[in-house]
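Moderator note: this is an archived Q&A kept for reference. The question asked for a predicted structure of one protein chain; the sequence and the answer are reproduced below.
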Amino acid sequence: MHRFLLMLLFPFSDNRPMMFFRSFVVFFFLIFFTSNVSSHEQTYVIHTVATSTKHIVTSLFNSLQTENIHDDEFSLPKIHYIYENAMSGFSATLTNDQLETVKNTKGFISAYPDELLSLHTTYSHEFLGLEYGIGLWNETSLSSDVIIGLVDTGISPEHVSFRDMHMAPVPSRWRGSCDEGTNFSSSSCNKKIIGASAFYKGYESIVGKINETTDFRSARDAQGHGTHTASTAAGGIVPKANYFGQAKGLASGMRFTSRIAAYKACWALGCANTDVIAAIDRAILDGVDVISLSLGGSSRPFYVDPVAIAGFGAMQKNIFVSCSAGNSGPTASTVSNGAPWLMTVAASYTDRTFPAIVRIGNRKSLVGSSLYKGKSLKNLSLAFNRTAGEGSAAVFCIRDSLKRELVEGKIVICLRGASGRTAKGEEVKRSGGAAMLLVSTEAEGEELLADPHVLPAVSIGFSDGKTLLTYLAGAANATAAVRFRGTTYGATAPMVAAFSSRGPSVAGPEVAKPDIAAPGMNILAGWSPFSSPSLLRSDPRRVQFNIISGTSMACPHISGIAALIKSVHGDWSPAMIKSAIMTTARITDNRNRPIGDRGAAGAESAATAFAFGAGHVDPTRAVDPGLVYDTSTVDYLNYLCSLNYTSQRILLFSGTNYTCPSNGFVLSPGDLNYPSFAVNFVNGANLKTVRYKRTVTNVGSPACEYLAHVEEPKGVKVRVEPKVLKFQKVRERLSYTVTFDAEASRNTSSSSFGVLVWMCDKYNVRSPISVTWE
């Protein structure tokens, strides 16, 4: 149990939007929940040979019954799920002795403890250039049936975004069901939501039985996160959508005519691996085309990463899998879901903002972000730290840290960290404060989050925060006034969000991650009527649409765009769709400057491939990329061979025995036919030359002559052979090699970036290059 990655879902937690964070509170819950499960029992994910799962389960039961035939207190192990599509195996709660029995049974491959993953928590379509009747939103592409499966906190079936007016009957190929449960019946589904299921056996084996006064043992969404992601990916068109008058406009999913299948595997404290695998397993069986996963854990080797393993099973069935990159940025090497067969999505800003102007007593003006849409605040006294409460907790406005006699009627300054952002506002309001200024620390940089606070509140970046605190330290009677400007458009965008997790990938550094960036900051989408917009129980407000942030919000954008591309190119593989999205990505903002990064280095820093992958998604260009990098199941298995995986570890993915190429055939992880290049040099090593091979498939003009253009990373010479690729027909495949020569070894770890572009007529097929010295 102590190995569980238990992360607590806290309302709008700091420092990462809509995610889980480690703290003393988490430790308390870990100890508390451990008592709910016998110290001799633990839930495991067990991998078996494809033909052996039922045999192992049967052998386990038979041997245990024989051994304990005279023990009246004996009970059989709890088998939670049998996995047959995403992987081969099962999950069960076992004692140590029972686990040893499983390990000694023929057909067993591996086992590891279950754990909780975390959720990575509209105008987006317009910002991305999607317009009804034009381009990807034309009648032909919108009429075909594409089914998006979302593994999340469930769905709110009555929401206006999920109405099925004018939709055709459910496609006959659909094999799913609408499972009944608490506050959810078979009639809750329609021609829009065509499937709904709940998976909680793994979660309850870790946490204990779900409290149905606050959640539902069904596909109904009690939190809002699942409704938000589903409506972002495939919600119908809703005019005049807004959050208390803010962000008013047309709300629409990226592929608004897609069908939705909701697989609820995430609950109040997270998503158990065993439940997530079961959800993916069901989605594959049901017949979805796209799987959207706005969740993840820490980076780990792929052979112990259930999302990577289950995602591989989906890819083998020609299902596109989109995953959030995580909310642990801007720290390097924090990206999760880094397997190359998954599309890993970073989060970005759109040009829509919610500015608030804070004018402090020395007449300096600070620009922040706020969803409050009330009257301006005239000059009010400021309270912070010792002028707001006692002890260091008052700096962060932790619960019960503020004193009413010190803060009543004042604007309270709170630093981010140590508690949830909306929880800080709750504490300020409870203590009688009139408003809150939420200041980012250096780690959060210039991030300007617009949160649904319970009182007037303004989020302020690190630089303006320093100005504010410097003024406060030198003023005898510090004051501030605040003017709320509502919703505005035209800010510099896109820009990578500071919280978005960064590469390089720890699990597979030879493949650059994340892959792409999509809108994930201050996103308006559908919300559950059972949850307040702030996620605080004390908040009585209920909304139809909410504004939240996270790579959780970026992921369903890509899921919906993948569905759009699949509706046009039904015979494309998941790798081809991924390649099209990556090689057509934009790298400049709406000012025609390099896309910026809101990370700790400052808003003016240009984003790199470790922040936004190939760039920012451009759906209109992605439908016609010219060339694509296709990758087969065998290519991915050879990639695992190149990582020196044992045959047993490869069996986790292949399901049957796979023999790695031999006879002098040298495999390199960098040779995976991927749309980007990741080159790693070791300081002081003799190897200063790396050569990769790639193969591209022509999906554009039948006859096209592509010329190679290279922008070299600093300190590296790049040679492409051949420099010209002459295509004569569609689907023709041609190969080339790229040689990277390090000019000199470096004394410290560092990275540099470049690009390779294949150009022919209107096509510019762009692949980022990242070079790392370690």
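Archived answer notes: The chain is about 20% helix and 25% strand.
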